[in-house]
Each structure stands twice: as structure tokens, then as C-alpha cells.
Write a structure and sequence with these properties.
The complex is a heterodimer of chains A (85) and B (390). By secondary structure, chain A is mainly α. Chain A has one domain: ACP-like (Non-ribosomal Peptide Synthetase Peptidyl Carrier Protein, Chain A, Orthogonal Bundle), CATH 1.10.1200. In chain A, α1 packs across α3 and α1 crosses α4. The radius of gyration of chain A is 12 Å and the shape is globular. Chain A starts with a helix and ends with a helix. Chain B has 390 residues and is of the alpha+beta class. Chain B has 3 domains: 95 residues, OB fold (Dihydrolipoamide Acetyltransferase, E2P); 37 residues, Dihydrolipoamide Transferase, CATH 4.10.320; 221 residues, Chloramphenicol acetyltransferase-like domain (Chloramphenicol Acetyltransferase, 2-Layer Sandwich), CATH 3.30.559.10. Chain B is built from 8 helices and 20 strands. In chain B, the strands form 5 sheets. In chain B, strands 9, 12, 15, 17, 18, 19 and 20 form a 7-stranded mixed β-sheet that branches. Chain B starts with a strand and ends in a 6-residue tail after the last helix. The chains are: A mainly alpha (85), B alpha+beta (390). The interface between A and B is medium-sized, with 17 and 14 residues.
Amino acid sequence: MSTTTDVNETKGRILRLLGEIAPEAEVTTLRPDVSFRDQFDLDSMDFLNFVVALHTEFHVEIPEADYPKYMTLNGCLAQLSAPRS
Amino acid sequence: MADFVMPTLGADMTEGTLVQWKKREGDHVSKGEIIAEVDTEKAAIDVECHATGVIERLITRPGDKVPVGTIMAVIRENGQTTTGQTGPQAVAPQATVPAPAPRVDRVPGSAPQPGRLRISPAARKLAAERGIDPKGLQGTGPEGAITLEDIEGAASVAPELPRPAVGADRQARMRQTIATAMARSKREIPHYYLSTTIDMGPAIAWLSEANQRRPVTERLLYGVLLIKAVALALRQVPELNALWKEGQAIRSERIHIGTAISLRQGGLVAPALHDADRLSLSDLMKNFQDLVKRARAGSLRSSEMSDPTMTVTSLGEQGVETVFGVIYPPQVALVGFGKIVERPWVTHGQVLPRPVIMASLSADHRVTDGHRGGLFLSEIDRLLQKPQSL
């Protein structure tokens, strides 16, 4: 079970990775339920780099079919906070 | 001896500013190694050396703006010695000393226009020291000449200029460079345009299957398939892989695909993916990722800026279905791809939903005709139906 502290910590790490890919993105005003692509000028290359960054940071395998689950901040949090088998 | 000169890093580049040397006098350099960082209107570029040897002299100083072709450094190629044991250099060592570099302008951001500006030598010197561009000043001296006082006054309000071009200035100049190149293109190149719709079903299916087996760090984007298909199709219609020089098209043996990359702060660059027809999809993807990263970080290499032989632009990410591009001179063709959309498609007498993409060709009518252009687009289509052989 994840605590609020855990979630905030995970969120901070996700936003840091996002900031590295899109330095001009205003991550402080990011809407957690709207896709990153709709909020920032991310192209498919940026998104792939983001997925690679998540993979490296959180040691998770992300099959291509699961990409849509990582399109929003809430989506990422749900995936990355879920208990792993 | 080999001279390292200010290279041409784009169709309209006339001069460049040395930002820094990446090597010191006495250092060894190899052909293809980065020797200097040069600032152009568009970006800071890592410039590669075209000779192998030891750097004898660095002539241009960081901050100097010099015209294209100026000798910036002298390289003693392998096998040669400083005393010049072979050839006429031994007799006349002075001959190895390069001619003095053309007059340089040490004022960051200003073009060298000596003689036109009414300014006293002392004021010019002070302006250079303070990093002020005297051209922008209103002179208060005789006949509007700029005086020491004018420079002092400007210095008290002028912001520090840490680098030759940054931020808004770079952006404005990039806009100007694009404007010049595109205006020249539309003025000089009689464009013709063709387009065709391509079934991307087989390519997408092949790609998702391939990506399932690949770790996330090695996955491919469909854009790489498009680039490879264009590069291979150019082998079949080589007259599109050419540069227009002095009234004629010169075909290129090698296929370097210029890839339009939009920059986050605005503007775009189209550096080359070298030998795109010969690289595997995996290598092409790696190079493409690296190119995008470096384009956005402002660290492209000189060869990438100067030698694309044809350009591909893919505006699909922005959600448009069709793009008819403007040819980047001196190239003679450009391929545009829109976004992949699902459309009703008739195959074997059946209507099925298929992912399709619109491919367009903008080509120079001085070099090719619609017939050859059409064959070229058909060839791209044919190649994309067999993605496994790309």
C-alpha cells in the first residue's frame, strides 16, 4: 500500500523526467488527467524517450501496448504505484 | 599542411563566429573529429576536421566572426614535420605560414562593415571591449559620427553579452535564415507537387510485432521506416538525390536524408541522416534519436548541416494529413508525410478500415518531371508494403 509521501515522491520523479525531456514544460501547472501530449509539445520521439526514462528510473517493463496507460500523470502514478508481482 | 577553414553550414551561410576550440595547438586530430564549435545564424555547430594530423596553429580566436572560407587553423598532416623535410617547404618555410585571415569583427553579433560606419578608432575599440554593436547607436559627433561618449553611454545601459547569440536574438536570426532560404527556394525553384495515399497496415503490423520483441531502449518509430523507404526509393530514381549547382543538377552518390526537426524554442533545422539507404532500421533509429537530441541541445555537426541530399518532413505529429513542403536549396526534392489516419480502403473487392498515410513529393521541375516523381512515390509505396525487407 502506498502512502501519500510515496505518491508525492513518485510524482516528483515523474515530473523531473518529464522536465528533462521537455525543459520548457510548465510542470507545476500540469493537469494530472490530461495527456502530456495535449499539454506540452511532445512528439512520438519525446514520448518514447519518456517511456525509456521511466523504464530506467523505476525499473519497469513497459510494452508498447501499454503506452496509452502512461499518457497522463495520473496514469503513470496508477501504473507505478501498483503493487508489482 | 592542411588548412582548416570556416565551413559552409547551410545554403545561406556567409560567415560564422568561433565559439570555442575543442583542441589545442599541438593536439592530434583525426579526420571527422570535432575541432571547433561555430555559431551560425541557426545554431551552434560542432565542426569536424577534414584532415588528420597535429594542430600547428590556431589562428581564429574565440568570439571572432569570420567569413566562410577563412583559414582558422593550420594542421600538420601525418608524415609532415614542422621543419618541412620534404618538398619546397624546407626551402621556404615562410610558405607554410598562411595568409593573414580576413579582417575580423570582434564585436559580438555585428556584421563586419568597416568603412560604412562613422566611428572613431578609439570608440570602435571601446565598443569592442564593452561588447557593444556601434551600428545600433545614434552618433552625436560630427556628421553623426559615433564618439567615445556615445559608447560610454550605451555601455551603461547595454546588457552583458555572454555569447555571440542567445535566446531571442538566436530565434530572430533563425527566422531570418529560414526566410532567406525559403524565399530563395520559391523564387528560383519551379516546384511541382504530387501526392499519393499509402496503406500503412503492413508496416504498422510489422512494427508492433517487431517492437514486442525489442526492449524499450531499442524500439522503432514508424518514422524510421518512412525515412528508410524514401532512401531506398532514391536509389531507383537517383535524379531526385541531387544538388542544383551553377545551372545544373549534380547527382549525389551517397544518400543523406535531411530530417526536418522542429526546435522547442521555435524554428527548425533539417540535418542529415548519413547513408540512410545503407543503415539497418536499428542503426537508423539510433542515429535519428541522437540527431533529434543534439538538434535540440544545439550540438549538431558540420557535416550534418551541410550535406543533406534530399529532405523528409513529417508533420503528422501536429495532426495534419497532408504537407506540401518547400524544397531546401540547393536540394531538388522534398518528401512530406502527414499523420496516419484510419480510412475505408478497398482491397480484393472488400472495403476495410486501414491506417493510411499521405505522402507528397515537392520536386524541382528543372531536374525532373512528374512522370519520374510519380515513379518515385510509387516505389516508396511498394517498399512500405514489404516492411520486413526495409
